[in-house]
Write a structure and sequence with these properties.
single chain; about 350 residues; alpha/beta; pyruvate-formate lyase- activating enzyme; OB fold (Dihydrolipoamide Acetyltransferase, E2P); 3 domains; 5-stranded mixed β-barrel; 9 helices; about 30% helix; about 20% strand; globular
Length: about 350
């Protein structure tokens, strides 16, 4: 073993390799500390494909949710300079990419650690100016920091996709407090209402944790009620799992694994029905789809996504990959849609 290093120190790898080649008896290199300058580095990137790209806009997290290890492993929140991000998008556009997804543990607090006067809604406006990038997505959006200003930016900027991933985690205020999420269910629901009022066709997805320590039957019923009330387009759901160093380990009343599994199954089963019913309402509609490539499940078909992040399969030609096309939705499936290309979106 020659090197042990964390992601914050990857920019030094080239130097370490050259030093090792020059001195084969050089001691092992260990670099696991948080690099306070990492967010200012512009590292070379190699990406597969030429349609969609992921771009980190910040690193670390300041939220300290009691179940999450990220602040301890990736350090405090650090935002990349906006011009560096814009330059990366300009380069991506030059390489033919059409869609980018901006990445951060909490994109809503982008800019807090920067000397420049900028926040996330303004960053979206800056990036919206990059010619060639047709779609901009972002994850993850922390509910406590979702602002009216961001909602307005999503409404006004046509290249910002009508989709938001807004993790709820639980429907019980007691559990949310134990998770240190710093919002109540009613506050969360109010923000969902504002999103849907401003952007009626927005798709909302979420994260749910089943079996958090101290979650009793009534708490769990509130989570099921939240799923029924909010009607998410889709969710990622998990059983609570212990993470060394997190405060949730010290909470009382940890849940039996069998009960956690049962609760997770109920969450998934309920959401399967909700997702399918939402998808069925799209049958007969015309959707704009960015073609990403051939379908993994059927190599005779192409696949792409709507602005609301729905996966659509259809017949087409390889030359169409990377293009925005209009698709008539013919059939809804559980987690995807099937359709056909139409030449005129009015058909």
């Amino acid at each position: 073993m020659d090197f042990v290093f964390g992601p914050n120190n990857i920019n030094s790898l080239k130097e370490w390799i050259y030093n090792r080649q020059d001195n084969e008896h050089r001691p092992q290199t260990t670099a696991l500390q948080v690099n306070p300058e990492y967010h200012t580095k512009s590292l070379p990137v190699r990406r597969e494909g030429r349609v969609r790209a992921w771009v980190s806009i910040m690193y670390g997290c300041d939220n300290y949710c009691t179940y999450c290890v990220v602040p301890y492993t990736r350090g405090r929140e650090r935002s990349r300079p906006s011009q560096d991000i814009k330059n990366e998008l300009i380069a991506l556009a030059g390489d033919g990419f059409k869609e980018v997804t901006l990445l951060g543990q909490n994109v809503n607090s982008y800019g807090n650690s920067l000397h420049e006067n900028i926040d996330f809604p303004y960053l979206l406006k800056v990036l919206h100016e990059v010619d060639g990038i047709e779609r901009i997505r972002f994850v993850t959006s922390h509910p406590k920091d979702l602002s009216d200003k961001l909602i307005q930016a999503m409404k006004e900027l046509p290249r910002i996709c009508n989709h938001i991933h807004l993790p709820l985690q639980a429907g019980s205020d007691k559990v949310l407090s134990m998770m240190n999420r710093r919002y109540t269910y009613s506050e969360y629901k109010e923000k969902v209402s504002k999103l849907r009022q401003a952007i009626p066709d927005i798709a909302i997805t979420s994260d749910i944790i089943a079996g958090f320590p101290g979650e009793d039957d009534d708490d769990f019923k509130k989570t099921l009620h939240a799923l029924k009330e909010i009607q998410y387009d889709g969710i990622f759901a998990f059983k609570y799992s212990e993470r060394p160093g997190t405060k949730a380990l010290d909470l009382p009343n940890h849940i039996n694994e069998n009960i956690k599994s049962e609760r997770l199954e109920k969450v998934l089963a309920l959401q399967e029905d909700i997702t399918f019913n939402i998808n069925r309402k799209l049958e007969g509609e015309i959707a704009e789809v960015l073609i990403e490539g051939f379908s993994e499940s059927d190599k005779n078909k192409l696949t792409g996504r709507t602005g609301t992040n729905k996966i659509v399969h259809f017949y087409g030609e390889e030359k169409d990959i990377g293009q925005l096309v209009h698709i008539k939705i013919l059939k809804a499936r559980q987690h995807s849609l099937y359709g056909e290309i139409v030449q005129d979106s009015s058909k």
